[in-house]
Design goal:
By secondary structure, the protein is an alpha/beta fold. 40% of the residues lie in helices and 12% in strands. The protein has a single domain, classed as Rossmann fold, CATH 3.40.50. It contains nine helices and seven strands, in the order ααβααβαβββααβαβα. Strand 6, helix 8 and strand 7 form a beta-alpha-beta unit. The two termini are 23 Å apart.
Length: 278
């Protein structure tokens, strides 16, 4: 049964994180705002919905779950989420992408608590996640690994090598989440390189697959609660999302992969996100 109170609380948190993220990118004059907004509901569900077993006061606890942001260019969303979750003070978000800041344009595990591995070059996060999940199996440990990839990122062959390995080693402690917003830098994914039938491809590689509305927090909670979907198979969640979700003039627009809003656009975006939360 859907916990409507919990879903409402998480939805309000997602709106707050989106607003802070938009303001942060505007202030820094750098970032990837469209992809940040598309994945916000996913990260809020993981970190605030009781999915990830992590403790901001012990970010390196050996038995913690691991979250890997493979689409590392969306570091702004990860930083905002970690700050709101208590991994570091929210005030530090004011330094995003500034000289000598710990909050670089791509996440750095040596500088930011809660970041599990450095990412940025696409196609690297899932292979690292496979290695981590295999390590947990070899150690007979109960911690799990969650990795968020972009959909355009799946054009990188390293992901499919990793997918084969995960199935071979029966890594049912691994969950990959595909942010399926259908846009990458410059164009629709299907205009750049066909991904469909995407779910069938993951199944053919030996994964158990679920497709969800990536902006429906109730669906996300229910789906993550069922991991592993099948014993002995790695898990793939294809989350159908919209680039620039929550802001009308950014939604489903390729230009907002890395465009920075001007002052007028910022005001409109913050207003729409505020109204969407009420």
């Amino acid at each position: 049964m859907r916990d409507t109170q919990k879903v409402d609380q998480l939805s309000r948190m997602a709106s707050a994180i989106r607003r802070r993220n938009v303001q942060m990118v505007y202030d820094a004059k750098i970032g990837h705002i469209g992809g940040d907004l598309s994945a916000a509901d996913i990260l809020v569900t993981l970190y605030f919905g009781g999915v990830l077993r992590v403790d901001p006061h012990a970010p390196n606890a050996p038995e913690r779950d691991r979250f890997i942001l493979s689409k590392g260019h969306c570091a702004g969303l990860l930083y905002t989420t970690l700050a709101y979750a208590g991994f570091f003070p929210r005030e530090e978000l004011n330094t995003f992408a500034q000289p000598l800041s710990h909050l670089n344009g791509h996440p750095d595990r040596n500088k930011v608590p809660g970041v599990e591995t450095n990412t940025g070059p696409l196609g690297h996060g899932l292979p690292v996640a496979v290695g981590a999940a295999l390590a947990a199996k070899l150690q007979d440990s109960s911690w799990r690994v969650f990795a968020l990839t972009g959909d355009g990122e799946l054009q990188e062959g390293s992901n499919w090598e990793a997918a084969m390995s995960a199935a071979h080693y029966k890594l049912d402690n691994l969950t990959v989440i595909v942010d399926r917003n259908r846009l990458q830098q410059g164009d629709w994914t299907e205009q750049t390189m066909h991904l469909e039938p995407l779910a069938d491809k993951w199944r053919a590689f030996g994964w158990s697959v679920r497709e969800v509305d990536g902006h429906d927090i109730g669906q996300l909670l229910e789906t993550f609660s069922r991991v592993p979907f099948e014993a002995g198979k790695p898990n793939c969640v294809i989350a159908h999302t919209h680039k620039g979700q929550g802001v009308s003039f950014m939604r489903d627009k390729a230009a907002w992969h890395h465009r920075i809003p001007n002052a007028e656009e910022l005001a409109t975006a913050l207003k729409e996100l505020e109204e969407g939360a009420s």
